[in-house]
Design a protein that fits this description.
- The protein is mostly helical and 785 residues long.
- The longest helix is centred in the middle third of the chain and has 36 residues.
- It is a multi-pass membrane protein.
- Keywords: Membrane, Transmembrane, Transmembrane helix.
- It is found in: Membrane.
């Protein structure tokens, strides 16, 4: 039930799109021309569905001919057709269009329009309100419901992957780069983050063709460089540069390995799978929606008109020399060809032969415009041709230079125009559904921050054997750890500033710089610092994968734009216990609340002072806590004047009391039980005793190894306790150990080492012992291993 409730809007939208797709399919099967007004019958009331003499048989099929009736709801699976569909738009699909209706017409579920009203807005909710019946769709729904759960789960999983096949391609591309970590595999991830994910509304066919062709070329190139006759593929060279990150074939991705194209083939399969999905839905060759252009009122014509004056100025501009005129004519011809290819009204009715003729005419026009460059120059050439034949090569070189310049200008135009359109679509897109994914981006940054803290050794050269706690306790901060933390924290601050300013251009520039910097550092600088390959650095791979998730979310934020209202903590959007605990934990972090409040005040247009802003933030926090308490009271109502139940008091209160008592007394309890309960018996394996007189060389040194170390028995332990029973201090020490903790070391009576004392020292010791004028200390030391 909760799953059906959660997916209610998605299922309703699926029903609407399925009904529209069914009508289009039936119309195509009849061989008729598909028009946009075909699905209008789904959004008309019963009185409007068949007005007398309104539609012909060929323009729009009737409800009966399309299999539509007025007996049952559209789909019985939704279960909530009475509730309108909330899509966030006032349109049937993705565009808002008003259609003419008859005066006085009424919609089912809506109030009647005035007699003078001639337009109405079509909504998807009308289809859910209207009672209709499509027999084929109901049979398909019943057949799907009759399948097993496992089969439906597999089918749903496949449909989920197929619906997001571009994400599958992105994941495989990133996975291939993480495993390969070469300059060849670096190209596609950068293109994904800076081209594909920023394309509006979806990546173009050109990108997918570039990815497919690049992968195919990479596979063929890697295969060609696997032969053993290359000098860098010999066994000696491979052993010499094993685990060396800066081996040139390894950097270029041409190293001889067993699985050199495994991930490339997987990437190619994912790309072809996505291509098949685009071909299935007719989106492979779909560049721009013509209906959108018509709805915009000829935006493409306006763009062509904007280009035309510039072309006329170029064509009319003449200089003192004839070369500029020729260059202008050639450039204008090229611009005219591009404009003709990119007009909002494509020549769909032209055949391929007509297109070829147009291309030939343009070529002929270029030649004609190049020949009469300037009358003065032409006459001069004819006059001098009869007198000086040596000037012909010079003229040919001049013409060649003009053609070369015109071709360079044409190439520059072909590169500049797509880039200009790409950035214009990002910054000035007309249909933008603003969204807010800053919370997810911040979460990705926090995860990267934690990875750096607990895995900082992976970002340094000689820090693999050290621990961050031991380094900080010795007042030593590793440089790699400090640099990584500062860079990560700095990017989080910059991202917060861009989010508060809601600047898409700044976010785009930050995305480009960050993507290039991260890939340069992770795959070229970091291997030189750590002297480890990226493919063998698991912590760096995990950090990079989380950063790729951040890049994807950031690109989605750029493509959709920032919402109007962005202030407020994302934890305070819902009033439940989870958000309350997370918000209280957020407030307990030192200086984090103050830092966030100051950043919000700096980068937000406001008339409040800093102190007033802090007061407002405190008020919001207290109101959120109070609202959470009110929501709890609504979910668990308690009658007024009635005492709390004992189950609640002893259940929740008792647990809190036990928790506080454990916090207070657990350290002492742990210290007292660590020897008796947690301690493990660790008997010595070597005992060394030394007898030393004063500051002279040791008199006696002897060791006892494993055979001479005998375990202590229970009888011997009882005798020892009986012997020292009168001495409480000794018994306190003995009672801390059990017989298993005690061993007996048998020391030989003779020393195992010679007494290495010099004759003068020996005579001095004798004199001190005979005289007895000073005290001499006898030291007995022992050492256990």
């Amino acid at each position: 039930d909760w799953l059906l409730t959660f997916t209610r809007h998605h299922r309703a939208m699926s029903d609407v799109l399925r009904a529209e797709r069914y009508l289009y399919t039936q119309e195509l099967l009849r061989g008729r021309q598909v028009r946009r007004s075909l699905v209008d019958q789904l959004y008309l009331s019963e009185a409007e569905a068949t007005p007398p003499g309104s539609l012909g048989a060929q323009d729009a099929p009737s409800t009966a001919s399309s299999g539509l009736g007025a007996e049952e709801p559209l789909s019985t699976a939704t279960g909530d057709t009475g509730s309108p569909l909330s899509t966030g738009y006032h349109t049937r699909s993705s565009s808002s269009e008003e259609v003419a209706t008859e005066p006085g017409a009424s919609l089912h579920g809506f109030r009647e329009l005035p007699a003078g009203a001639g337009t109405r807005t079509r909504t998807a909710s009308e289809l859910l309100h209207r009672q209709l019946r499509i027999e084929e769709l109901e049979e398909a729904t019943q057949f799907k419901a009759g399948q097993g759960r496992a089969l439906r789960l597999l089918r749903a999983a496949y449909q989920c992957v197929a619906a997001h096949s571009e994400l599958l391609c992105y994941f495989v591309i990133i996975l291939n780069h993480m495993v390969t970590a070469s300059a060849t595999s670096l190209v596609l991830p950068v293109l994904v983050f800076l081209w594909a994910m920023l394309s509006i509304p979806r990546p173009s066919k050109r990108f997918w063709m570039v990815a497919i062709v690049f992968t195919e070329v990479s596979v063929v190139t890697k295969y060609l460089f696997q032969f053993g006759f290359f000098p860098w593929n010999t066994h000696a060279v491979l052993r010499r540069y094993e685990n060396k990150p800066y081996f040139p074939p390894r950097i270029l991705g041409l190293e001889k390995t067993e699985s050199y194209v495994k991930f490339d083939l997987l990437q190619l399969m994912a790309l072809f799978f996505h291509r098949a999905q685009l071909l299935c839905y007719g989106l492979w060759d779909h560049e721009e929606d013509q209906l959108t252009l018509e709805h915009d009122g000829g935006g493409g014509k306006k763009g062509a008109e904007e280009r035309a004056p510039r072309g006329s100025q170029t064509e009319a501009g003449t200089g003192p020399q004839g070369e500029s005129v020729v260059a202008g004519a050639l450039t204008q011809d090229h611009i005219q060809v591009e404009v003709g290819d990119g007009l909002a009204e494509p020549p769909a009715e032209l055949k391929p032969q007509d297109t070829k003729r147009i291309g030939l005419r343009f070529r002929k026009k270029r030649r004609e415009s190049a020949e009469p460059a300037d009358p003065t120059v032409a006459e001069g050439v004819m006059a001098s041709g009869s007198e000086k034949k040596w000037s012909r090569p010079r003229e040919r070189m001049t013409a060649l230079g003009l053609r070369l310049r015109s071709s360079c200008l044409a190439v520059a135009q072909s590169v500049y125009q797509p880039l200009r359109c790409f950035f214009h679509d990002i910054l000035h897109t007309k249909y933008r559904a603003a969204t807010d994914v800053y919370a997810l981006m911040f979460l990705a940054d926090v995860v990267d921050f934690i990875i750096i803290i607990f895995g900082f050794w992976a970002f340094g050269k000689h820090s693999a054997a050290t621990d961050i706690t031991s380094s900080l306790s010795d007042d030593q901060v590793p440089e790699a750890f400090l640099v990584m933390l500062l860079i990560q924290f700095g990017t989080m601050v910059v991202d917060r500033a861009l989010y508060l300013r809601k600047t898409v251009l700044g976010k785009l520039a930050f995305q480009v710089v960050l993507v290039l910097a991260v890939h340069l550092w992770m795959f070229f600088i970091l291997p030189a610092v750590t002297e480890r390959m990226f493919s063998q650095n698991a912590v760096a791979q995990l950090w990079y994968f989380v950063k790729c998730i951040y890049f994807a979310l950031s690109a989605y934020q750029i493509r959709c734009g920032y919402p109007t209202r962005i202030l407020g903590n994302f934890l305070t959007k819902k009033y439940n216990h989870l958000n309350l605990f997370l918000f209280q934990g957020f407030r307990l972090v030192p200086f984090l609340v103050e830092l966030r409040a100051v950043m919000d005040w700096v980068w937000t247009d406001t008339t409040l002072s800093l102190s007033s802003w802090m007061c407002v933030e405190d008020i919001y926090a207290n109101i959120f806590i109070i609202k959470c308490s009110r929501e709890t009271e609504k979910k668990y109502p308690q009658p007024k004047g009635q005492k709390k139940k004992k189950v609640v008091k002893y259940g929740m209160g008792g647990l809190i009391i036990l928790f506080l008592v454990a916090i207070i007394w657990f350290p002492l309890l742990f210290m007292s039980l660590v020897r008796s309960v947690v301690g493990v018996v660790n008997q010595p394996i070597d005992v060394t005793v030394t007898l030393k007189l004063g500051g002279y060389e040791p008199l006696f040194t002897m060791s006892a190894q494993q055979p001479s170390i005998v375990p202590f028995t229970q009888r011997a332990y009882e005798e020892l306790s009986r012997q020292f029973d009168p001495n409480p201090l000794a018994m306190q020490f003995i009672s801390q150990y059990s017989p298993e903790d005690i061993v007996t070391a048998q020391i030989e009576g003779s020393s195992g080492a010679l007494w290495r004392i010099s004759p003068p020292s020996r005579a001095q010791m004798k004199r001190e012992l005979y005289n007895g004028t000073a005290d001499i200390t006898l030291r007995f030391t022992w050492n256990f291993q």
